[in-house]
Amino acid sequence: MIKTIAWKDNKVIMIDQRKLPLQEKYVVCKGYSSVIRAIKDLVIRGAPAIGIAAAMGVALGALRIRTSKMDQFKAKLDVVCGDMTAARPTAVNLAWAVERMRRVVARNSHVEVAQLKSLLVAEAEKILRQDVAVNRAMGRHGQRLLNDRSCVLTHCNAGSLATGGYGTALGVVRAAVEAGKRIEVLADETRPFLQGARLTAWELVEAGIPVTVITDNAAGYFMQQGQVDAVIVGADRIASNGDVANKIGTYMVAVLARTHKIPFYVAAPLSTIDFAIKSGKEIPIEQRDENEVTHFQSKRNTPRGVAAQSPAFDITPHRYVTAIITEKGVVAPPFKTNLRRLVSLKEPSLE
Q1: Domain architecture of the chain: domains with CATH
Q2: Are 264 and 332 within 8 A, CB to CB?
Q3: Beta carbons of 67 and 76 less than 8 angstroms apart
């Protein structure tokens, strides 16, 4: 299994996803600012993985604070948490993870600062362990939706690289294969960063799962030809009504799936659901640098002076979503009611 991110010797080590699949290099972050830069520069991406990175970044920041006075420590850590939360605006897992770290501080203000630092490191490592367990649980629930010999279309990368391990959308595919089903994957290339062509394809080749890369504008063709049995994507934030923010282009795929009567599934942990917002209209959409459209690997591929826009995500309205796959089960519409009902269910702790 690919190791996306790890905590070692009070450093955060993450695979540099910008270099894949041609080079397997790792970035070592010694301070929280370098974690923020790695998140912004897409060294690490994918909502769950960003959340893990944020928690580890907060822990790094805590270790570097030089004071034994709790009030001073908390004030400085608050700055660290604020900076980390602002790293990327759309993926709610980032803010969720930072809030978990804040709660550790709130619960343990009575201990010595040195002990609190250790507790923050332990919490960050726990978030990583739990993420892998959550993904495996999602896979077990979701694989039941796939038949033997199914062909699954994916958009962007929602595998081990986007999580602490195993994956969300690709976790469902992995679980189906582990259950003995023969699954093939059509991977949208996912412009402009090519997460599908570079990352999803690489992961599936490593796992021995048949994969074919297609251009983003070919998805409708393959659906029309009857070659797609299901679409499974991940999510960066899900509103309480089931609207889904995911990588730009997801909305088009969902509309095409509905037109061709193909089930469209979203695989995401419950931490990705933002019950504080009513619909996708409230989700901020990150606008990336236009150079990510006008250039590829620092090489210009458009005329000089041309304008470009690069929204990183789009919103898929809940009416296009067949079901949402979570670690507690598969949720069908109406999402506004059923998501809250699912969250209230008690299950053994995932560790």
Answers
A1: 5-136 (1.20.120.420), 139-344 (3.40.50.10470)
A2: no
A3: yes
Query: For residues 21-49, b (16+ Cβ closer than 10 Å) or e, as one string?
Result: eeeeeebebebbbbbbebbeebbbbbbbb
Instruction: Give the whole-angstrom CA distance, residue 239 versus residue 241.
Output: 5
Average pLDDT, the chain: 95
Q: In whole angstroms, what is the distance from residue 255 CA to residue 249 CA?
A: 10
Q: What residues pair up with 349 in beta bridges, in sequence order?
A: none
Amino acid at 140: R
Residue 242 per-residue DSSP state:
S
Give Cβ neighbours of residue 221 (< 8 Å, ≥ 6 apart).
none
Of residues 163, 179, 40, the one with CA closest to residue 97: 163
206: CB partners within 8 A, 6+ apart: 2
Contact 272, 168 (CB under 8 A): no
- DSSP state, residue 324: E
Write the DSSP string, 198-226.
IIIHHHHHHHT--EEEE-GGGHHHHHHTT
Residue 243 has a pLDDT of 98
In 3D space, the residue among 137, 319, 172 whose CA is nearest the CA of residue 244 turns out to be 319
Q: From start to end of the chain, where are the E strands? A: 5-8, 11-15, 26-29, 151-154, 184-188, 211-214, 230-233, 237-239, 244-247, 264-267, 273-274, 295-296, 299-300, 313-316, 323-326, 329-331
This prediction's pTM: 0.93
Report pLDDT for 344. 84
For 196-200, which contacts have Cβ atoms below 8 Å and span 24 or more sequence positions? 196/154, 196/155, 196/156, 196/157, 198/20, 198/21, 199/17, 199/20, 199/21, 199/157, 199/159, 199/161, 200/154, 200/156, 200/157, 200/158, 200/159, 200/170
Peptide bond preceding 348 in cis form (omega within 30 of 0)? no
Task: Find the distance separating the first CA and the last CA of the chain, reported in whole Å.
Answer: 18
Q: Tens digits of per-residue pLDDT, 176-235? A: 999 999 999 999 999 999 999 999 999 999 999 999 999 999 999 999 999 999 999 999
- Give the Cα separation of 184 and 232 in Å (integer): 12
Q: Would you name the residues annotated as active-site residues? A: 236
